[in-house]
Amino acid sequence: MLIDTFNIRVGLTEEVQFPGIRPDVKVYRVNGLLDSSEVYIIDSPEVRRVACHPHVVGDELISLMKKVAYDASKVIVELTMIDQLRDDEIVFEHVLRAAPGYCLHDALREIGLKFREVWIRPRYKLPSYRDHDEEASKEIEVVYQDFSNIPEDSDLMVLKPDTEASGRTSETALSRLYQEAGKKNSKLRELVVYGFISEYGMKVIEKTALKLGFKKIYFIALGNITSLCYNLYDMPLYGPDESYYSERGEIRKLGGIIDYQALQDYLLEFIPGADQPGDWSARQKTLFTGLGYEPGGIRKHLQNSIDLINRLWKISKGQEWFMEFHEEAIKKELQELKLKLEQLKE
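Request: output the structure for the sequence above.
Response:
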């Protein structure tokens, strides 16, 4: 019923086996979605816990993401020729402040890879929490960048983890990387995008990457390829679009792309309409800005999550698709969020 009600696409995936990853980690190839990119989904208990439970923050979040990134690093090695490249042929683009929280750079180092690192901080001029609408998305400024490590006269593989909702910050980050690489007579040839990724954002990034000259593009999404809400921010697996309801007073149903078996694992934990990555920067204890470190904003994230879940509960209650297990998941998560909030006050 949920699959049909929300048009959750469960028929595009096929499981792919990769050596060296843990038995409870699943990797799926997604077929027929993009013309010029290879698309994969990595799912595991750790991904699911982060995606379904916004009370997972701070040290626990980073611990889980390190495990996920280690699995992803093995997948990247198998998909690409990264382990045969020199360090001056690999560029890791850190999108500040939040993207280093995906821990992919740490995992790649752990398996012995070396690479050049560059940093950029694109920022919405208007407040961006749950507000990446079209007008706001046009107003992106780069408040910090350091591309000094770009090698000269090289064809580059680029690794870029981040939360990819609308794809707008990626347009900026990749375009600036292209400009700076050109100054050193280097070209962008291969791209690996990793993190929570929406279908909308994926298509925006592919179009941008092709325009910049990338010949090979890989997307490695966590858990599922998400739908994207009206606000171009929230990234649910499925459910009602709260931002659309708040503005229009109508229920708009959204569904992402996931393997059928993986969907069974998500059903009892995922709150319909909830934003899986949440405010990724606010879920972290400390964030690198390029010039120093600052706190992420965990308390604010927890309160925002409570508010959003309560609104989703109100919208969903009484709908024919809303099940008892949905209500149980909501009650449990609200309890965990409030408990975590109380612990921070102590």
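The mean pLDDT is 95.
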